[in-house]
Amino acid sequence: MAETNDKTKGSEEKLSRSTILGLGAMAVGIFVVANDFTSLAVALPAMERDFGVDVTTIQWVINGYAMVFGVLIVTGGRLADMFGRRLAFFVGSAIFATFSVIGGLAPDVWVVLAARFLMGVGGALMWPATLGMTYDLLPKSKAGLAGGVVMSAAGLGNAVGPLIGGALTEFISWRWIFFLNLPVAVFGVLVTLAVIPKDKPTKGDHKVDYAGIAVLSAGLLALLLALDEGTDLGWLDVRIIGLFVVAAVALIGFALIERRIGARALVPRAVLANRQFMFACITVLLTSAVFFAALLYVPQYMMKQLGFTALQAGLGLLPVMGVFALTSFISGPAYNRFGAKITVGFGAAMLSGGMFLMSTIDPGAPYPVLIPGMVVMGIGVGFFYSSTTTAAMTSLDKSQGSLAGAIIYMCQIAGGSVGLGLNTAIVVSNPKLSDGISNAFIVDGLLAACGLVIVILFIGGRVDRTELASLIYRHKAHG
Question: What is the CATH number of domain 16-209?
Fold first, then answer.
């Protein structure tokens, strides 16, 4: 009888063909957005030459997109939950693809920058809608698989971005990085239209919280601008201090507005009152410095100390990005089996350990010295982000899934921005680049260790001792 029940349970949990196709479509959407963050990074020098501008202008091709994306993603998540995730995905994809084509055809740098800003609007609608639909496709018992799909696609997109961007820039033109988004986005939309059922928007008041959107956007924009420009202008510059003041006033104002509005608030009170969700956000804030710092300073070390080209540096990141993508698949089943505390905690521990390993570099260290630290960190990224996203999204009602994913991602961007500012301040204060990177990575490792402490104390409830004991027993038996 028990055997029959097990078989029935297994058949019930077997994924249907439409579910697999739906997950594939969501993975395509995630890949497009994630790839766009990294593919243009290696094309910036070519764009500088073509438009006759300097790096302070062309950097906004990356920064402008990321800033608009980070500012609007919470709004995108809330709108997706209110009016339907599939609709939000279609609208976001249309905006993203349209302005990708305009960016590819741009006659000057200002059209490119305007296109990139508006692509950020499309991405801010696509990303949370895609997260919500991915978790909706699967039962709660397979929520870890959803997290694995999300982060695997994101890891693959981030990993191949520099390779695709470098190859297109070198052999055709950087403009094809923009044009490539169109067919991929169209494919994602067509598959979604065919296999993802039309979702029901949340019940209740669908009036848009315009005041909350405006004040939160102003506060986040001021904060991200301050963090971005603080390393160049100096943290005590009156303009940077002014931006921090504006950010603080706006974010306090946002909290007061949301309390007054109630149920139709951009971020409902039930979300902010959920302790599991808030601790997941804090953990992401603390640990995001690790990934962002590695993506910036490991290539810097390769190019400035080891003489790598931009394309070689992109290939040099494969031990992090490739392991990240592969580990994300493993993290899903691990989350389903062992729960949030073990999988998120393991990821945070690996992030910390990876940064401590890479902090041992010195001016004469060859590339192979970096590989063990990058591999350990790749394991950490794959386990930590997919498991934390799953823990955060499953702690809230399914109707708030897109908003939950958006807030988690905003914390990742905000934590990464703060971490980059801190890392840059440490690096430039040292006379040798390798010494600065080493000291910065030690600080990053300590921040990730603080995240691990929060996981141990507050996330995932108690560890399932029986499951953990069986894991240890199986490990010893294999040994």
Answer: 1.20.1250.20
